[in-house]
DNA sequence: GTCTATACAAAGATAGAC
DNA sequence: GTCTATCTTTGTATAGAC
């Protein structure tokens, strides 16, 4: 394999592999969207953060809405991959699966200015292009489905104990995670998401 | 008392009393901020929605940040009044107090495009003027304090049953409410907030 | 693939008449 | 207190050279 980057200067490293411009744009845009929301950053902000000129962005993403959709798509894929891998492991302990599943969310929770991308975008839902709305909705549906499956299995195997329907508990869990991410930034408390998720799993285990 | 409104046309009624222009601006701006976020609406949108011209807004609120702060302030006062009234009732049943406290949130939850103003604004926290950030933070702190008091008293009186610290449960409850508001719009489900709050109170009552 | 230059609309805001 | 007219800056986006 030949590295595509041909310029001078330091290589762009993230997660240990080199990134081309499109990836750098996606990564930086995700950061901006997580911290400022879709309507809270401009192509100018993005270009400044990356260190290129504004029109260069249009070569990779012909409109801000296209970029927005791509950013959510990448986030969604990344998060879904975790869920898919856990679904693929036969007979994994439900408590462990839940812990592994929540780890990416806890990681975001520990990053001071960050929050779940889709939680943030859900807050500006009707002020967003429709293509982006559909991506956000799909993200939430996917994760509700995963949580419902995991909770149902976990209760059947006596790893979890709760009265309500698995779907209702899944809805509660996802609401809780998303809400904790929003709240923690406003009260400037990095421990909130971890603490809250801990309280939840404590409740679920009876 | 003499009504201040002097023009022709239908009187502006909300909650059964006439509103002057400043109130209409505040009310309409709150709606826009709840549905589109602070960076998702403009003075032009607001003027159009009210039916006046853009510069007229500046007579009442000299900047968008001023208006934003005023909108949160009004929302905060309104919500705090409920909490203060409940604090003032000697020996009120904690479960009833919690139900009454949550009713305004449930009402917002039933309104299709709406969400808690401060939850929405918490999502764009770092893309907001500092004066507004401070209001949002204060809102959350107030409500965490109220919930903590209520939960501690409720447990002492055996109306609630939970293991964790009252503060931790208050943080969980507020995260849950705010998250449910965000989520319900993105999955277009008006029942989510009510269902989720029901599940929570069920859990708290043991 | 990136740049300079530029078009065009919208945003926040002000001046000053009525 | 509201209006018309206007200013300035920013935002999204395109044209065309390198």
From TrEMBL, chains A, B:
GO terms for molecular function: DNA binding. Pfam families: TetR_C_13, TetR_N. Residues 19-79 form the HTH tetR-type domain. InterPro entries: Homeodomain-like_sf, HTH_TetR, Tet_transcr_reg_TetR-rel_C_sf, TetR_C. Residues 42-61 bind DNA. Keywords: DNA-binding, Transcription, Transcription regulation. It comes from the Bacteria. This is TetR family transcriptional regulator.
């Amino acid at each position: 394999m030949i590295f595509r980057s041909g310029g001078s200067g330091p290589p762009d490293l993230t997660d240990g592999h080199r990134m081309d411009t499109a990836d750098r744009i996606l990564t930086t845009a995700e950061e901006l969207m997580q911290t400022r929301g879709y309507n809270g950053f401009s192509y100018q902000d993005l270009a400044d953060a990356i260190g290129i000129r504004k029109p260069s962005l249009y070569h990779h993403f012909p409109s801000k809405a296209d970029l927005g959709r791509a950013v959510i798509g990448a986030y969604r894929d990344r998060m879904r991959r975790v869920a898919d891998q856990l679904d693929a492991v036969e007979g994994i302990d439900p408590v462990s699966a839940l812990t592994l599943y929540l780890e990416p969310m806890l990681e975001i929770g520990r990053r001071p200015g960050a929050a779940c991308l889709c939680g943030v975008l859900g807050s500006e839902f009707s002020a967003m292009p429709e293509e982006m709305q559909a991506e956000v909705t799909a993200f939430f549906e996917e994760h509700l489905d995963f949580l419902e499956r995991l909770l149902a299995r976990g209760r059947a195997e006596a790893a979890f104990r709760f009265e309500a329907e698995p779907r209702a508990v899944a809805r509660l869990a996802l609401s809780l995670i998303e809400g904790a991410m929003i709240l923690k930034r406003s009260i400037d408390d990095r421990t909130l998401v971890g603490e809250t998720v801990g309280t939840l799993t404590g409740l679920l285990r009876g």
